[in-house]
Amino acid sequence: MAKIAFTSGRVAGFKCPPEKHQSFLWDETARGLGLRATPAGKPAYVFQGVYQGKDIRITIGGPGAWSIPQAQEQARALQRMIDEGRDPREVKAEKTAADAAKREATLVNTLTVGDIWPRYLQEGKPKRRDAWKPRYRADLEAMAAPGGVKKKRGQGLTRPGPLYPLLALKLGDVTEDALQIWFEREAVAGKHQAARALMMFRGFLRWCSARPEYRNLIDRDAGKAPAILENLPSNKHRTDCIESAQLPGWWQGVEQLSNRTASVYLRALLLTGARKEELAALTWPHVDFQWRKLTIADKVEQTRTIPLTPYLAQLLATLPRVNDFVFASTRKAGRISDTRSSHSKAQQSAGINGLTIHGLRRSFSLLGEAAGAPAGAIAQVEGHKPSGTAEGYRPRSVDALRPYLEKIEAWILEQAGIVFDAKAEPGKLRVVAK
Question: CA-CA distance, 126 to 372, in Å (whole number)?
């Protein structure tokens, strides 16, 4: 192959003819140094030599980054490696790996959990979902909040969230021992809260382990230390629910609440079996009084549509339309958020103890069974993920669900000692205790 002395003019003017796949210009000064060009790409210096009887070619770089003397010196260095019995490609790979290891070690020594946490909030997501649910995202933020702000209720300032101390840890310092010490300290303030924070942080570790840039910097299983798992509170499922005999007292206590919105909201939870956040987020455009349907934001799917039963329809019609939310509030969120205080007053009035808001959902399921509704219909109304049941789960249309939900509503009202005029004009509900 012909060789010429490389000059800046010859290098700058070298082009690949359009009819060729590639073209080379070879230097007569440095052995093996060439300039390669393609019709579409930019020219680049290359080195071509023979290692163990086979031709090898290594790209050095473009003329914009390498001067002619620099490219010639690099070609000579590569030829010296061959003369010494070393493969320049392996030497380059080893150097690249060493540089990567150095960068990784630097990250381990400098990158903290707090550096990555905002990205996790932005890009992380639970399994089989496209994004965080707003409430869970808010919980993640609260768990890692620094505290020190005035309490919305009561006196004083808020304390840091359970995860806040972990934000200062370097990724390499997130070990079983470190998490055990953190968990034991947080468990003093509240074992269940510490356990929930641990589950959230384990989700963060899983997310990091799935990212190539963090995978080797973090111990995914650090949160599974035996000393931590042994001290987790027992995961007992609550069984609180309303018994039939308690319904009249509970209903009366709820109906007498001074907060009308909370009163209707609590009864709607019992009559639909919806999750508290699902129902709190209900908006008026998703209440269809004409075709008697409710479209609810679902935890498992995006939404689910259920029948709007007669009594519930009239209850909702009595609520003022303050904004888009059915259960509106003057607070920042614009909707009802925490009804525990109202529910506690109603329970106290009825002489009931320990009934949680979620217990109303459980009560709907049990009362629905007592009313004679099929398990599959109850599960579909509640938004449970489809699964096999004793009666064989098959999704029903809204109209097919309607008789069952109306039957459940009628049975609950009967047990509560309530009668009402189903034909009364919406907004003019007339309820009479038996």
Answer: 36
